[in-house]
Amino acid sequence: VELDPVDPGRMALLVEQLGRFGANAHGGVDRPVYSPAWRDAQDFVAETMAGVGLSVSRDQAGNVFGRLEGRSSDSVVLTGSHIDSVVDGGRYDGALGVLSGVAALETLVATGVAPSRPVEVVSLCEEEGSRFPGASYFGSRAILGLVGEEELTGLRDADGVTIEDAAREAGPDLRRLGECRRSDISCFVELHIEQGRRLQDAGAQIGVVQTIAGLKWLRVVVRGRTDHAGATRMEHRSDALQGAAEMVSAVDAAVRSRGGVSVATVGQLRVLPGAPNIVPGQVEFVVDFRDTTQQSVDALEADIRAACSSVAEGRGLEAELEVLRATPPLELDQRMRQTISAATAAVGVTTLDVDSGAGHDSQTIGRHVPTGMIFVPSRDGRSHSPAEYTSPQECAVGASVLAMTLWQLAWED
Ligand code: GLV
Ligand code: MN
Ligand code: MN
């Protein structure tokens, strides 16, 4: 089949329109789940889906679906991604996967041929866990029936609002989350920006994702003693922040010495009580660490724990370590990878097999149904930053490959 290529101008317009919701002064977006900006963005996505001829539905998690009916089967080919963002995030992370799904379906609808299997594009909620730490992949987990009852009241944002109350404010009733469960999904394909720089460096147009790295979040609480900042001699202090600072450096050094694709980040740190004239009595920070094999993730954890314990011991501080979150690595489905590769050949673009350092809803969904991921280049590898950029031409190539992939999965299969 010859599908019309997706128009770069169409992609540029969609990215620009969705990027208005939660736009901030740095050219980035702040779109935490269930916020007014997020709700307006989901409404925009729903209108855009309806505008290209899809039937729109929403579930009680807040996920939005656009559906194209199939002729001879109920088993759904699903595509999509998320529109929630990290704090001061970019306009492409997640958003591009949703918009590409809509644009791909627009092209497929234009063929005038109905698919044999139904095709849906979904805009998932709270992939990032940026408003509710620990809630990552909330929308996809809701679809799979993997949200625990205790999360509804246990997950709170920085202001102490529970996820259940935040959702109610935006519309969804999380008490009815059980209704989100889907058992009719046969496969999932997610387009996403690479968020790294291998495609750019290799001059490849499309990345065919092989493995998604596993990750853990380790929360470290360092306890020392509060004292007067002026009156307490240096040798009499038990300063939790000095210990934490040394731990942060030790973690970085330990991970660098492993080499390979291991990464670790301390991106959040809280100093208590948090005043210039009080020696810090307690510090809490989270180490995010990742690798593509479970064995390496576990080895990293052991190194990080050892580094923190040894600093605590040397300084006479207490350190309490707790795993907040663990997502195992996932090798994507081989047939889905082949289908995506065949689509890139049909469209005529250059490709590279790549792993994903970032986490994705595909990692959760891919444990239950065959899943594949398509990467498009990220300029200079920038992501989780307002600097995210993928050119309209690159976006259009990605959406065209997605359209061809969906054609193979839902029309030909
Ligand atoms: C999600 O973007 C993650 O990998 O942190
Ligand atoms: Mn992200
Ligand atoms: Mn993402």
Give your account of this protein's structure:
With 413 residues, the chain is α/β, with parallel strands linked by helices. The protein is 36% helix and 23% strand. It contains twelve helices and 15 strands. A hairpin with a 5-residue loop joins strand 1 (55-58) and strand 2 (64-68). The longest helix has 22 residues, at 294-315. The protein is globular and about 80 Å long. The structure holds glyoxylic acid (GLV) and manganese (II) ion (2 copies).
Descriptive terms for the model:
binds manganese (II) ion; 23% strand; 413 residues; nine-stranded mixed β-sheet; binds glyoxylic acid; 36% helix; single chain; alpha/beta
